[in-house]
Every structure is written in structure tokens, then in C-alpha cells.
Amino acid sequence: MPTSGYDTNAFNPAFIQSANGLFNVHFGGYTQFRYNATFLQNMPDSMEVVPRGYNLARTRLFLEGDVTDQFYYHLRANINGSNNLELMVAYLQWNFKNPKMSLRMGKQFMALGREDWILPQELASIDFSAHDFTFAIWTSFGFQFHHNINKNLRYWIGLGNGAYGARRSFPDPKDSDFAVTTRWEWNINGSDWNKYDDMLGRKGCDFGMLLGLGIGNNTRFNPEALKTDSKNATQMNLDYTISGNGYQFFAQGSMTNLKYDSPQAGKENTVYGLYSTFGYWFTKKLFAYGRFDYVGRGDRVGYTEDYASPGVGASIYPFTFSNRIRFTLEYNFLGATITNTIVEPDGQLGVIATPYGGQQSIRFQAQFGF
Q1: Phi, psi of 157 (to 5 degrees)
Q2: Cα dihedral sign for 101, 107, 112, 113?
Q3: Taking the model in full, what pTM does it have?
Q4: Torsion of Cα atoms, 276 then 281 then 282 then 288, to 10°
Q5: Model confidence over 271-295: pLDDT tens digits?
Q6: Is the peptide bond before 171 cis (omega within 30 degrees of 0)?
């Protein structure tokens, strides 16, 4: 007879499985309800100085499991702040006879930096950084080969349809392209890999250090796209993590170079970014953190300021076995005028488009799920 239950040790705890246990399905989800208040500087008297409001930042739904001991599937849907439903992830993973190797086929994250493949519920802060919003590939259609060489070293290599490929349409959109990505991770002291699945470092976690290196190249071929967009985009990410009993430090730096097919399309440029967090558990349920988010303009034409935003926050986690239920209060400061930086204003960042000066934000988030 099939069985069902709730396994608190699983990522998605609710499950149904066949009598022999080979076929199973796990499901779960969470939602993030958010209040934002942004304090704008140097605003004209006729304009609102403190825009504020509520929004449903995201709702994630998960369906995953094993078809056999060789094949694993993963589906992930998202309802965004505009109430649009999108299928973010849909892949089949073939586990080779060598248990250290696997191949994923379908729509998936092609991560270069560690923050890229961390889920929103596992972040130290309320949301991803401006660094990640600006530079990350996020999901693509493609193939990704994973190899855990030993307890100290693992890597993956991916072939996909490029940056933000998952939001593109069939058969050949104007900005279609091709990406080759790879990421290598060195687990310096050979500790449990699972501790790096979040950016929190809960109490009871053993000590570990992780060094990651990611390199990717994005190439466009469509003649129409090459009239306005870069032909090649090459990015390198380097990140370092220290995780221990009740704390975690993370820092990631990146360099991105764009090359164009003609001077009319654009001028070659290189930009840089940095993101860092440090979090500490005062108790098993109270977590506080600091963060610094930097996106430099480099030598890209048309921008006069760098995005540099420090912030602090604190979260309460009612349950020690799950990160899906938490309540977070966060403050961030941005001295630059956002429209003078290469960062696109985005409600998920809590940053509002304004040409008048800097801004500060206070955000509260209630996250809950199962």
C-alpha cells in the first residue's frame, strides 16, 4: 500500500510514496507578505517623500520526487508580485550508476555565484541583492552535469539558452542566445556539504569553509539583437563562506565584460560587483545580520554613480526545523541616485526609481509555508 506523511528532515516535508519506496512525490510551498516604506531624499514639495505599501512579494510551490532510484524530477512554480504565475524550474535529473555524477535536463538555475542557487527562504536577508538582480543568470533551458569528486571538491558544467532564458518564448526571440557556464566549489575542511544550502549557519552547525569559482560566457547570434545588444558577455564570480555554530559569513565578488559587434551597438565595458552578509544567532530562534551590496559602473558609458547599499536586519524563526516560517525587519541605505547607476529599480529590492537623490528603506516581511 502507498504511504504518506510529513518528514521534517526533508526540504519539502509532505510526501506520498509507493509501497516499495522507489516512486515518491514531495510537495511544499511558502509565501512572502511584505510591507515597504521608502524615504526619498531631495524630493520636490509636490511629490511624495515616503512611498509605502504592502505587496505579496512571491509565492513558491514545489513538487519533487523520485521516479526510480535513477531519475529524480523537480517542478517549481512562482506567483510574483504582479500575481502572474510562472513555471520557474522544471527538470529531470538522471543519476548515473556512479553516485557522484548526475545530469539535469530542462529548465533550471545555471548558477555562477553561491547566492545564485540559494532559495529566497534560505537567504540571510529579506531578498536577493542588487548584485544578484543585476548579474545573475537565474534559470535557463539546458543541460547541466554535476560531479561530486570527493568530500572536498565538486563542480557543474551547463549548456543553456542564456541569461534569463527561462522567460523567453519559442521559437526564436530577438534576444535568444547561448550560454556556457561552470562552477567549482572547494569544501576546504571537508565538512558536510548540506550546511551551504542556506546562508544562515544555525546553532548546532559544524564549522566549515567554502571557496567557489564560477565562469560563464553568453553569446548572441541574431543579427537584429546585435544591433543594440552585446555579442559576448563574460562573467567571473568568486565567493567565500565561513559557516559555524550559530553564524555564517559570506562574500562574493564578480566581474562582467561586454563586447559588441559594432560601435553603433555599444562600447566594450567591464563592470564589477560585491555582496557580503554576516549573520549571528543570539538564540535558536532570533537571528540578526548585516549586509553590504555594491554594483560598480566600471567604464560603462552613461552612468555616473556606483550602487553602494549597507543594511541591517533581524528575523524570528518560530521553528528550529524549518526556514520557511520567519518574520523579518530590515533597514537599507542607498546614498546614490538609483537612475545614475546600472542597477534597475525593482520592488523586490525595495528601491524606487527617482532622479533626485538617495533613499532609505524599512521593510517588514512575514514568510510562512510548509
Answers
A1: -130, 130
A2: negative
A3: 0.90
A4: 40
A5: 999 999 999 999 999 999 999 999 9
A6: yes
